[in-house]
Recover the amino acids of this structure.
């Protein structure tokens, strides 16, 4: 599979180069030159397939020119020992649970595939790499788990101080070994900017083989498309059009859904549901993309003022605003609306959700009310509610159980390097000690 830069179409890269380089030299993003279609015969019988079987077929459809089917099966088998089940919440709406992996967040699907894919390439090349990743919460934990003790890989995670939950922070800062956490006095946008600047710095790229595990890396988007196909497989028997509501921050998840759609997955519509960081809903409303500094909210993993994957999202439609809006609707919500929705879901369905999942559910309900139509709604649950236990318990007025794997983290002392948000500080740290 070949990729081009969103800034310079003639700047092309192979799969291996795109995975390890993460960003093209011109600071664009990698996009597939051509998107192959999934086999119609496979879609015809997809409801009989397991998650792993679906993942193998989708990955092989995309990557057959680079990796044998046998090796793809090994990569998938190494990456996934968990599922992505759907559960009914209302007569017409289902939740797609993406928190059954080791870090209990949807980022496990991308991070673990990426770790297995990089290991496959590293075994052949005998190279060593340094991964830089910015996180607003869940990416860091998933990447830390996915790459922990992977030979030839060291990982540096940047996160905004005081802007992730306690459990999220423990997932970033308690593994050690090849995982280093940097606590940045700033926002997620600051962390993301530092990572991007590092990839463009000639001294750093001369010293290290740098790679990114953020959703700017195409190896994160490919596996996140798997669970859109899996949701379709589980709900196909209902015989209704599917509408996906995606809680959105950096817009990698929605971009993965669009990749699945472009591969031939039957999707009626997508909903981009955000918190107050609403650059994309505003774009969908008026055609002007105007990012603003990020605003802190209770759905912290979506506190992204200038989402990197926006350019990918619109490129799937050749940057045509009218075509984008025919397939995607946007909604944004404040903290009060988010809390109210969390209480409504629990009161009506006896189902506990994290704030990000609540935003997705509210977007789906508002779309249904505005648009009408007979369809099956799927809203993505991107993290286990226990990862935000203080907020969830306060909002619902009840105690919720913490899964054992998260409970163990609370007793471990965090280890992080504190740093201001200047690239000078970050570069010096990388050059001297990490």
């Amino acid at each position: 599979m070949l990729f081009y830069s969103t800034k310079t179409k003639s700047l092309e890269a192979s799969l291996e180069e795109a995975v390890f380089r993460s960003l093209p030299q011109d600071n664009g993003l990698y996009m597939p030159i051509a998107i192959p279609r999934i086999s119609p015969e496979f879609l015809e019988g997809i409801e009989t397939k397991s998650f792993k079987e679906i993942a193998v077929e989708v990955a092989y459809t995309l990557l057959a020119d680079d990796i044998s089917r046998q090796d793809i099966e090994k990569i998938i088998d190494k990456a996934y020992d968990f599922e992505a089940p759907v559960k009914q919440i209302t007569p017409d709406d289902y939740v797609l649970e993406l928190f059954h992996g080791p870090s209990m967040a949807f980022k496990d699907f991308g991070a673990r595939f990426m770790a297995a894919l990089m290991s496959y390439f590293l075994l052949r090349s005998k190279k060593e790499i340094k991964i830089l990743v910015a996180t607003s919460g869940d990416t860091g934990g998933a990447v830390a788990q996915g790459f922990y003790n992977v030979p030839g890989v060291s990982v540096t995670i940047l996160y905004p101080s005081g802007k992730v939950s306690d459990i999220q922070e423990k997932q970033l800062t308690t593994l050690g070994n090849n995982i280093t956490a940097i606590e940045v006095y700033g926002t997620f946008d600051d962390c993301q900017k530092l990572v991007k600047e590092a990839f463009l710095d000639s001294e750093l790229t001369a010293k290290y083989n740098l790679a990114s595990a953020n959703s700017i890396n195409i190896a994160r988007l490919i596996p996140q498309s798997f669970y859109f196909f899996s949701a379709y497989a589980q709900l196909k028997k209902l015989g209704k059009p599917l509408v996906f509501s995606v809680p959105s921050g950096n817009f990698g998840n929605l971009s993965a859904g669009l990749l699945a759609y472009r591969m031939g997955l039957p999707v009626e519509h997508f909903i981009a549901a955000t918190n107050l960081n609403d650059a994309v809903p505003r774009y969908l409303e008026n055609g002007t993309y105007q990012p603003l500094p990020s605003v802190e909210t209770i759905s912290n993993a979506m506190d992204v003022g200038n989402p990197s994957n926006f350019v990918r999202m619109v490129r799937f439609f050749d940057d045509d605003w009218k075509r984008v809006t025919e397939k995607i609707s946007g909604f944004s919500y404040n903290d009060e609306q988010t809390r109210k929705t969390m209480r409504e879901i629990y009161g009506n369905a006896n189902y506990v959700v994290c704030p990000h999942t609540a935003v997705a559910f509210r977007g789906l309900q508002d779309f249904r009310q505005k648009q009408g139509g007979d369809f099956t709604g799927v809203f993505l649950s991107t993290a286990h509610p226990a990862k935000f236990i203080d907020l969830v318990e306060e909002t619902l007025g009840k105690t919720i159980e913490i899964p054992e794997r998260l409970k163990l983290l609370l007793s471990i002392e965090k280890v992080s390097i504190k740093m201001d948000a200047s690239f000078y500080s970050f570069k010096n740290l990388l050059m001297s000690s990490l």
Remarks:
- The first strand starts at residue 2 and ends at 5.
- The radius of gyration is 20 Å.
